[in-house]
Each structure stands twice: as structure tokens, then as C-alpha cells.
Design a protein that fits this description.
2 copies of one chain form a homodimer.
Chain A: H1 6-35, H2 37-46, H3 53-64, H4 70-95, E1 99-100, E2 103-104, H5 106-110, H6 112-129, H7 135-157, H8 166-191, H9 196-223, H10 234-237, H11 243-251, H12 254-265, H13 272-281, H14 284-302, H15 310-322
Antiparallel strand pairs in A: 1-2
């Protein structure tokens, strides 16, 4: 991949800033309208950080497909951020998580009842923004949102299920993480007036990128990532079957598999070294990294038919940074 | 009000049946598409009963405004039932309710994490159905849904707040209950091609009816209502400030007010007689009944400009039955 000129990186930061401003404006408008505390508290979570990856993908896919007016795509772009934040709030309740992006989770601060409602409110705001687009786009968003719920159900069923297969895993990831990536990319292309083939290619781009994103997320859970404010081993403690664990459980046998099961069922910090040694034996970290690269390569291929534009280069830049999770 | 001929009552039952069939078809379609357990469990709650009041209002407002094709309005009609059921599931979690419509609540059966997600899923399905309509309708639905959240926040803030005013109360009721009634009526009229004046009149009709509905709900909480599978005094136990209580707290003073506060703060079944005597002293039940009738009369007035059709008579019939909550 080519290095990206400084001017284009500035354009990325500039676009992120526009997204943040649009989100702030929405919250302020709602507060002004008298929505009060629910808008204020939801806004605090929404505006407390986040890479705005979904909105950026939407905007750059729109522009790479020939879209000219950022105002035309901004509502769709931020809709996905609002819906994403809504699911984070509900997930945090269900995971009984204490921290998110390094700050106290909403339900810890204001109690569960209000946190559930705040999630619902953000969801409504996000979904409502989709109303200005065509039925085709709204259906894509609905499909993606419904699949988040379907996949989260499946994920709950697989908590501490040591027989979870890589196929189960990918089905969950496609619904929970990659589906919304795909929906924002495909609907942005449709709004820009792309051909059906081109829109579908960008939908697949989003799906591949989203799978890679989740694979990286799984790896970061094992490595720890202070920057993201995410506790190391959060997934393990919650019994989430991430790909490195599934892979190791598939390959290891006898006493080693037995020991890995015990570790996963009763994890504590003093077991880190032993866990990582077992994952090393089965080469599971490496396997996940390779698979991530496969999906990133596939994502890049889906961009092949796009003309060479600055926005395409920014999409490629997002793919590239995914490998280090700098996005 | 005139008695309604038998044939028209059959039409009401027939329409309710069509609504039920549309809801069943949606759930079945989702199960067939592979949505699995979340569709199955959400469907069970959705199809476990309910008067389908919101869909019926939508359909009859559409027809009374000149709409001819029930298929054109059915998605909107059932969207409101799906959204309503989603809020019931989240409310039940927040209220730690054990029973709904006489059966075990979803979170009691399948645990809170899945119940939160099931609510989200139903919400997505409902909201998604609105996608075939115009932006104007989608905005009305968004506004109504956002206001549910805003009002529920306010309601939580007023739990056991004995200084809650009738104005606070009405603001909560307008957002939480009456707003969705108003939105379904107004958007149905718009879809039927009604004039803006006529659509707004039906929106006001829904608002007035919704306020009356909540006032009746408050009264039923004090009277108990076996048919609805609702426990007598559920609101009191949850600290919800219903209008009869607010009215009594406003009028009573000295020792009586003090005693009422004590009862509300530590309610138990052996205090029923004493509570009802206090409410009787301030004539608070009667006051709520009178106010309910005022709002029902206002609802009827909003229908004045509609031509005399069967659907208008069915709307009037719904208003009439509201007084006995037979709907």
C-alpha cells in the first residue's frame, strides 16, 4: 500500500471533526427542544470519544462513489454512530461493564433504568435520521440493526460454550460488527447514485473490513490496549468465545485442552502467562492475525473497480490502519 | 353517543384479526429468514394478547380520512404495536415486573440481557416498517418514540416525589402514552391523503384519547383489573405518581397528607382501605374520572369535521369503550 500524503490525512481529521460537530449539533438541538436529561446524558456518552469509524466509512464511500455534497450523507453517517453508541450502552448493561472508553459506564453512573432508556433514545435518534433516505437504504439499516440483535442472542447462547465453532463465530461477527459496517458503506454508495454492482461491492468491502475489525478486537482483548480504555481479558471474563480461543480449543487436545477449559471457566489475572503459552502452542494468535489480513486483502479488492480518488485513498488508509488499530 | 350496529362491531373484530395476522406473518417471516430465537421469543410476547388499540386507531383514522387500501396502512399500524411491545419489555425490566398480561415477563423467563436485546429487536422491526412511508411520517414516529424516552426519564425522576404537580404528570403522560396514540392517528391521516388541518385534528384526537387512556390506567391501578392480568397497586409499589395520588397530595393537608405520604412510601396490601378512604376524602378518584371524561369529549370533538363513515363510528366506539376500558 502506498503512503498517504499529509494533506489527505488532514482531510481525514477534518472529516472526523465535521462528524463530531454534526453529533454535537444534534444533541444540542434536542436539548434546546426540551429533551432534557436523556439528551444530555446520552450526549455525554456519544461525545466522550470514539473514532467515528462508521461515519467516516460512510462519507468516504459516498464520495468515492461520486457523491459531491457531504450534507447529503452526514445524516446517514451519524445515524450509524448513534445506533452504535446505543448498542454499546445496552451491551455494557448486559456485560455489567464498569468502564467504557476509560470512563464510567452510563448504567454505573445513572442506574440501569435510565441507561436502558438512554440507549433507546439514541437508537431512535439514529434510526430517525435515516428517514430522509429511500426505502432501499432504510431497509438496509433495518436489516443491519435487526441482525445485531439476532447475533447478540447467538453470542449469549455461546457464552462459555467451548464447542463454539469458527462458523458460529463468523456468523455472530457478521451480524454484530460487520453488518453495520457493510450497511453504512452500501447505503452511502446508493445515496451517491452508484450502480447496484458498485453499491454491493462497497457493501462487501464493509463486511470484510468489519470482520477484520472484530478479529483485531479479539486480539486486543488478549494483548490489552490501554489507549482504548479497554481492560485486558474483558472478553475472557465475560465468557465470550473469541477466535483465538475457539481456534486453540479446536486444535489442542488431551491435557492441554482440558487445562485451557479450566482457565477459561475460572479466569483470573495470574493465569495470563499460562493462557498465552497455550495459545502459542496452537499458534492461535498468529492464525487470527493471518485471517485478519485475509479479510483486509479482500476488503481492498472490493475497492478495485472504484476510480482513483482521494476518498478511495482514504478508505485504503482506513484499511491499512486497521492492522494496527490506529483508526 | 349512538349504539353501534352489530355489523360494525364485527368489522372491528375482523380488523383486529387482520392486525394479529399481519403481526404473526412478520414474526414467521423473520423466523424463516433465520432470525431464530430472538424472533421466536419476541413473537411470543407480541402475540400473547393485547387489544391492538394503536393499530386499530391507525387503520380507522386512515379509512375515516378517505384511505381505501388496508394494505397501504397495515405496516404503519403494526409498527406502533411492535414499538409499544418493545417499550413494555424494557419497562418491565426497569420495573422488575414479574407478570405482563397475566404471563411471566420476558426478562423473568430468559434473563435480562436477552430481554433488553429482544426489546431492541422489536423496536427495529417496528421502526423499519415505517421506511415505506414519507419522511413526514417517519419524523412523526421518531418524535413520538424519542418523547417516550424523554418522558420515561422524567417519570423516573418523579418516583416517590410527592411534590409532583399535575403539570409534571400531564407532560409525562403526553410523551409516554398519548404521543404514540397521536402519532399513529396523524400519520395514518397523512398516508390517506388528508389535508394538513384534518391530519392535525386526528393527531389531537389521538393525544386526547391517549391522555384519557392513561387516566383510566391510573384508576385501574387503584381498582385492580383481573382481566388485564395487572396487579392492583403496581404503580403505587413502583412509586409511580398517578393522578389520583397527585390530586390527593395537592388537596390534603396536615395529618392526612402526612399519613398519605407514609402510606405511599411504605405501601402494603393491608393499607388499601386506609388509602382509598384518604383518596375519597379528597374526592381524587372522582376528579380523575371527570378529567378523563373531559379528554374523551375533546377527542370526540376533534372528529367533528370528518364525514360520517363506518370508520368514524368505529373510532367513536373506541372512545366510548375507553370509559369502561373494554378496548
Amino acid at each position: 500500500m502506498q503512503a498517504i500524503p499529509e494533506a489527505q490525512l488532514l482531510r481525514l481529521e477534518d472529516t472526523r471533526e465535521k462528524v463530531n460537530m454534526a453529533l454535537e449539533a444534534l444533541i444540542q438541538r434536542e436539548i434546546d427542544k426540551g429533551s432534557g436529561e436523556v439528551a444530555k446524558l446520552s450526549g455525554e456518552i456519544l461525545l466522550s470519544g470514539g473514532k467515528r469509524l462508521r461515519p467516516l466509512l460512510g462519507i468516504f464511500c459516498y464520495e468515492a462513489s461520486g457523491g459531491q455534497d457531504i450534507d447529503e450523507i452526514m445524516d446517514l453517517a451519524i445515524a450509524f454512530e448513534l445506533i452504535h453508541t446505543a448498542t454499546l450502552i445496552h451491551d455494557d448493561i448486559n456485560d455489567a461493564a464498569k468502564l467504557r472508553r476509560g470512563i464510567m459506564t452510563l448504567h454505573e453512573r445513572i442506574g440501569q433504568p435510565k441507561a436502558i432508556i438512554a440507549g433507546d433514545w439514541l437508537f431512535v435518534q439514529g434510526y430517525g435520521l435515516s428517514g430522509r433516505y429511500t426505502k432501499e437504504c432504510i431497509d438496509l439499516i433495518r436489516e443491519a440493526c435487526a441482525n445485531i440483535a439476532v447475533s447478540e442472542f447467538k453470542q449469549l447462547d455461546h457464552v462459555l460454550d467451548l464447542s463454539t465453532s469458527p462458523e458460529d463465530y463468523l456468523q455472530i461477527v457478521r451480524g454484530k460488527t460487520a453488518g453495520p459496517f457493510s450497511a453504512v458503506c452500501e447505503s452511502a454508495a446508493i445515496i451517491a447514485g452508484a450502480t447496484p454492482e458498485q453499491s454491493k461491492a462497497l457493501g462487501r468491502f464493509g463486511m470484510e473490513l468489519g470482520i477484520a475489525f472484530q478479529l483485531m478486537d479479539d486480539l486486543l482483548d488478549l494483548r490489552g490496549d490501554e489507549r482504548m480504555g479497554k481492560l485486558r481479558g474483558k472478553d475472557i471474563i465475560e465468557g465470550k468465545m473469541t477466535l483465538p480461543l475457539i481456534h486453540a480449543l479446536t486444535l489442542l487436545h488431551g491435557k492441554r485442552r482440558q487445562r485451557l477449559s479450566e482457565i477459561l471457566n475460572n479466569f483470573s489475572d495470574n493465569l495470563w502467562d499460562e493462557l498465552m503459552t497455550l495459545l502459542d502452542t496452537s499458534d492461535s494468535i498468529h492464525y487470527s492475525e493471518c485471517l485478519m489480513h485475509t479479510h483486509l486483502e479482500r476488503a481492498i479488492q472490493e475497492l478495485d473497480s472504484l476510480p482513483e480518488t482521494n476518498s478511495k485513498r482514504l478508505l485504503l488508509n482506513i484499511v491499512e490502519k486497521m492492522q494496527t488499530r490506529e483508526n
